[in-house]
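Q: My labmate handed me this sequence with no annotations at all. I'd like to see what the chain might look like in three dimensions before we decide whether it's worth expressing. Could you predict it?
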Amino acid sequence: MKRSLYREYRPQTFAELVGQDHVARTLRNAVETDAVAHAYVFAGPRGTGKTSTARILAKALDCVGPDEAPVERPTATPCGVCRHCVAIAAGTSLDVIEMDAASHNGVDDIRDLRDKIAFAPVDGRFKVYIVDEVHMLSNSAFNALLKTLEEPPANVIFVLATTEPHKIPETIISRCQRFDFRRPHVRDIAWLLATIVERENARPDDERGGPRIDIQEAALEEIARHSQGGFRDAIGTLDKLITYSDGVIKPSDVLDALGVTDADLLFEITDIVTERRAAEALQFVQRLANDGTDYSQFLRDLLRHLRQLFLLQHLEESARDDVSLRALGQTVELDDQLLSRLLPQANNMPAREVVHFIEMLGEAQREIRDGLDPRLQLELALVKVTRPQLDHSAAALEERLRRLEAGTAAPPAGAPAARPAAAPVAAVEAPAGAVGFGEAATASAAAEPPEAELTLERVKRAWELILQRVQASSVSLYAMLRDSRPSALDDGRLTVTMQSDFALTRARDAGNAELLAGAIAAALGQPLQAEFVPATGAPAGPAPAGEASAAPQIIDFTALIKQAKGTFDAEEMPDDS
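A: Here is what I predict for the chain of 577 residues:
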């Protein structure tokens, strides 16, 4: 039976450890200076070399060297050919005891280990106990282990490996030397994979057990990117692809083997969201269903795509040219192959929308982990970002306000939307201290972005935001208008249909129509006269005398600015007009 590549190419010396130079250097120096600690904690993500490093340390302590050049003491460069090195590499050494704490996590398992510690090594200088996933031990087992760590025999070394060091009691960690294994860079993983391919192709045909491996460099990088920083996962994927592919292994083969979403689909759905085409987003999800796509995997891939857009939007400001941008991109693991496609999309999608999209997908992931239907959660996330009027959260209301003030309310289905302006609250861009909606204030507010045509449909879409502004000024009027609906708009006069005679009568009190007009102007940038009518559409009697005779109310623009700051956490922008 063919041996897996991961077992075949495990690092056997400190020099072969990739991406963990800080660990290798410290342990090598400790062996050379006879300063090896009695216990270590190796913490880090899975597949980063924790157990392999523990075995290398064991070989360094017990290696006796080849017959022609024996060594009398521990060495930082184990020979790999003596009986101790061979047995440790094969996992058959009686002096290296590996224990899986996930399945042996009880106090009796630790007591059994403690009872055997007192015995001298069978053949080597040291006995090395490697406890994998040590965080899985029970509290009583940790207490039993603590006593052993306090007074270990001189010829016993403990290595406690874990992916979750925060679950280990502080009393245990304080008695050990801790090493944190880093998640390796994509380039380090790709280099290791290329080395393995080269070494495999250099072997005789009868030893290799198959044809030469022919794989494109881009495919190696694709494997590295999707390994999530794990050497073991990356090598396992390469092993799988060697069997999976016929001929040259291409990046598309990697995506097919891993079930990863094709980049074209990620660009497509991002464009759909940017242009707020909700119907096409739902049809896109149906296509994923027809192709048997794993929704959780798709969410991870889409989040990775959005992360690259997010980073580009901020890196590009610091990059002087394409070369410096690519150099910066390497430090944060951007996909160089897709940079020419990512840049236009990053420039076309406002940074605020990228963040909002990421937040919605993160919320969908949490709901899926809690057991809710993955497809429904994906659909909900896509509809919320394409139609924010359906989302009543504070963040969504702020986003809708920003879009409306920018004159970019959601277009009809199928029609592309203009890119929203960068300014979050256009009304706040007016000069501080301006009073009323005179020519100066209106010109300043409309200077950027340009004023869009005010239609009844736009007022309806913004109605919830308008009511939010009314509530900030008058809770009683907000209560009256909560069930009202804008029903007509003619020559600057908005007709508001009231659902009850009581609400209609109260709404017609002096000053309420002007207050509503001010809220509309603040939300949409254009003032409208308001008229309240009953649900039947017929007039409900003359308006109160006070309303007819009341002088137009002067709206304090400074007060509205203050309300916008408090309600929407807005900032006042400088007047560039």
